[in-house]
Specification:
Number of strands: 8
Oligomer: single chain
Strand content: over 45%
CATH topology: Jelly Rolls
Shape: globular
Order of helices and strands: EEEEEEEE
Radius of gyration: 14 Å
CATH superfamily: Jelly Rolls
Strand order of the largest sheet: 1-8-3-6
Distance between the termini: 12 Å
CATH architecture: Sandwich
Largest sheet: 4 strands, antiparallel
Length: 91
């Protein structure tokens, strides 16, 4: 594993664990170089990304990632939990 010096102003990946009740929405506008990674822990989600002609249903155990720019929207299809990583995990 390669070490990395973190300098003031550096952006680090942000890991968020989120629980959403049925039919709750989450959205975020991704910047040009921003990446979002999703992993469903339980339940299922409908996810769409601006500029992508596909919509996705993410089930427990599945993963998706999107690259900016654009708005990403997720809706829980049932009470569900997910992990969301903003940024590049390799950075």
């Amino acid at each position: 594993m390669k070490a990395r010096v973190i300098l003031p102003g550096d952006s680090l990946p942000l890991l968020i664990r989120m629980h959403m009740e049925k039919q709750k929405l989450f959205s975020r506008v991704l910047a040009e170089a921003e990446t979002i990674h999703w992993q469903a822990l339980s339940g299922s989600f409908w996810i769409t990304m601006e500029g992508d002609t596909n919509d996705y249903v993410l089930q427990a155990g599945e993963r998706l990632q999107f690259h900016g720019p654009g708005k990403v929207v997720a809706e829980s299809l049932e009470a569900s939990s997910l992990l969301m990583l903003l940024g590049d995990p390799q950075a």
